Structure formats: C-alpha cells, structure tokens
Amino acid sequence: MSVAEKSQKKSGGLGETVSVIVQALLLALVIRTLLFQPFSIPSGSMRPTLLEGDYLFVTKWSYGFSRYSLPFGPNIFSGRIWGAEPKRGDVVVFKFPPDPSIDYIKRVVGLPGDKIQVKDGQLFINGVGVPRQKVGQIDNRDITEENGPVDVYRETLPNGVSYDTLDLTPNSIGDNTRVFDVPPGHYFMMGDNRDNSADSRFTVGFVPDENLVGRANLIFFSIAGGASPLEIWKWPSQMRASRLFHFVN
C-alpha cells in the first residue's frame, strides 16, 4: 500500500469517526429536546414524593415545546408549539420565572383562572377546600430530613389525583395565605413538603406557560446521603433500590 493510499485510508477513518460522533450528538440533542431529559432533585421541597438524590426522566412533549425546550433557552420564538395544558396534580419541571437559568420542580395545583388560597394548612381551590386526611407519620430522616416523626396528609384534588404531603410545622408562614388569582396562561405551583418549599406562595409566583419544561415521569435512579451516582462503591449502602423505575405520582 502506497503512502498516498495509507493517508487516504487514515483520512477516511477519521472522517467516519467524526461523522459518527456528530450523528450521535445530534441524536442526543433531538432526544433531549423533543422526548426525554434527565433531571436530579437538588432539594427537599417535594418530599415525600421526591427525595434529594432522585434522578428522573422528564417527558418533554407533555405540554408541547417552548424556547426552554432547547438547550440554553435561546429566544428564537415565544409561546408554545403543540401546547397542551398541564393537568391539576402534575409534577412539573419549569424555569424559575425571576431567573430562567434555574430549574424548579413542583406540583401544579392552580390552573389559569383559578383562585388559590391556603387556610389553616388546607388548600382551597375556587373557594372549595381540597380534602385533606391525615394518614399517619413518617419517622425516617432520609425521607423527611427531620429527627423524629412527621405528620403526613393525603390531598385529593378535584380531578381525583391524590398524593401525600408533609406537615413539618403546624401554623407555619405558608399555612395561611391571601387569595391568589391565577392569570391567563399561568399556573400555581406548590411543593409537597409544604413547610419547606419556595413555591408560588412565595418567591416563585405564577409560572408562565412558556416556562414549563416537561412532566416528571419516572425515577430511574436514587441514592441517599448526598452520594454521587458515579461513586459506585457507595451503591450497596446508599442506593434506594425500592425507588428505582418508580413512576412519579
């Protein structure tokens, strides 16, 4: 084989490798933009539903696509394409309205046009109290972050969606609020850890439709103790096996 043939073969091999890498990156970009995106839970605001160290897939097509469906959220169009309204009770990843570079995850409790209020710890939607039943206590620091038992209440929204919430502190600052009138094209979000959640009652405010990223769907990995998934040697003691491939409710 001549020097020219060797050079041509080497060049062709390099070109094929670059082509494969580019195709793989484009495929990953399409999947991330249109189908699924992985997220990790950084805080305890959605306990007991989601825990710090949970890794989950978010379905990007659930509510259509906005600028925030794309990496870095380029301002190339406004509104949503093929938009669909979230259902009351959905757990949603969205961009923090005051700073869209930050991802938040909360539960949708208020739809456009709703009047939302919390009175004595009970959620009211359009003047009607959401059924709230004490179902027991959790005495597990990994779930509650507290040393000692925590009361657990099950809420059932008007559309039948039920989920558990924590009540860390009776009569906390978020247990009694004003009436919030949810404007058109916006949503009211709350964390399931009601006394430890910066949500629409406080700093988040109403979340614009455009800021929705997707619906939290499936926990594919979970590890406790602040460990990284890459620390494989910690898996035997820290991995929460019971949470693997657990659908988010």
TrEMBL record:
Peptidase S26 domain span: 16-221
Documented EC number(s): 3.4.21.89
Gene3D superfamilies, per the entry: Umud Fragment, subunit A
GO cellular component: membrane
PROSITE patterns on file: SPASE_I_2, SPASE_I_3
Reaction catalysis annotation: Cleavage of hydrophobic, N-terminal signal or leader sequences from secreted and periplasmic proteins
Entry coiled-coil feature ranges: none
Spans traversing the lipid bilayer: 20-39
Pfam family, one: Peptidase_S26
PANTHER family in UniProt: CHLOROPLAST PROCESSING PEPTIDASE, SIGNAL PEPTIDASE I
Family in the record: Belongs to the peptidase S26 family.
Protein name (record): Signal peptidase I
Gene: lepB
